[in-house]
């Protein structure tokens, strides 16, 4: 299968007047087209730094990243980035917020705007297209943020704890929506999360990062039965609980359960 992302020997050092801090050390992995992987680990292991490098927002001190066989040197529409906060503009309607990424990238046309409206319809949000963000729930706002991210048709999606501020029921609903949407569109995705259960339920593989400096400590392949199930059903499978305990033990069982 085609390689979608290649991260080769990425190391990141932050330098201040007082000290140099090694944030990431020799991170290497490849993702196939359509693969969904998660990175989990304690605070300070460089998860968000890694996403910033892959997105082209931060040049690595050493190593390189390629997306669709093109070297990443700066942000591009090939990579979509969805954050914990939805960052919707309160003075713009939902339809206008959904097309904001297209507008910023200079890609807003009648055709691309129609595509964003179609995505809103897919997410069950078309009846709310003329509403404003304050009139929507947190879960609905995150769905708008997902539409905004998908509207530019990125080849890779980066998801930086996008569900962590939501209540548990809404989070499960969005997990299912994201997984099914990305599978249907054959999108490659990288999720960063503190939530082991979320990572298992959504992913094909999980990379566990160790801190100080951030480095890959362990990689887990998700069993086929879990991958075939939607996130809520996946959590009920015996394989899920066995894998959860195995990953939990990697952390010594401290502070990395389901939120």
From TrEMBL:
Transmembrane segments: none annotated. The keyword ATP-binding applies. CDD domains: ABC_NrtD_SsuB_transporters. Pfam families: ABC_tran. PROSITE patterns: ABC_TRANSPORTER_1, ABC_TRANSPORTER_2. InterPro entries: AAA+_ATPase, ABC_transporter-like_ATP-bd, ABC_transporter-like_CS, ABC_transporter_ATP-bind, P-loop_NTPase. Gene3D superfamilies: P-loop containing nucleotide triphosphate hydrolases. This is ABC transporter ATP-binding protein. It comes from Paenibacillus roseopurpureus.
């Amino acid at each position: 299968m085609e390689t979608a992302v290649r991260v080769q020997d990425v190391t990141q050092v932050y330098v201040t007047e007082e000290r140099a801090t090694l944030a990431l050390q020799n991170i290497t992995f490849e993702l196939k087209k359509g693969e969904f992987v998660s990175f989990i680990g304690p605070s300070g292991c460089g998860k968000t730094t890694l996403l910033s490098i892959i997105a082209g927002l931060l040049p690595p001190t050493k190593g390189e990243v390629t997306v669709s066989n093109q070297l990443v040197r700066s942000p591009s529409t090939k990579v979509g980035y969805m954050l914990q906060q939805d960052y919707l503009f309160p003075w713009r309607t939902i339809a206008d917020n959904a097309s904001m990424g297209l507008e910023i990238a200079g890609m807003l046309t009648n055709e691309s705007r129609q595509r964003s409206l179609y995505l809103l319809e897919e997410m069950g949000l078309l009846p709310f297209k003329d509403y404003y963000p304050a009139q929507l729930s947190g879960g609905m706002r995150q769905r708008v943020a997902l539409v905004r991210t998908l509207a530019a048709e990125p080849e890779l999606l980066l998801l930086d704890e996008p569900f962590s501020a939501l209540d548990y029921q809404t989070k499960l609903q969005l997990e299912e929506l994201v997984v099914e949407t990305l599978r249907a569109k054959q999108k490659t995705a990288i999720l960063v999360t503190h939530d082991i259960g979320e990572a298992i339920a959504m992913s094909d593989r999980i990379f566990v990062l160790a801190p100080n400096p951030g480095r890959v400590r362990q990689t887990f392949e998700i069993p086929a039965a879990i991958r075939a199930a939607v996130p809520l059903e996946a959590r009920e499978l015996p394989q899920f609980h066995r894998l959860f305990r195995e990953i939990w033990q990697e952390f010594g069982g401290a502070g990395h359960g389901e939120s």
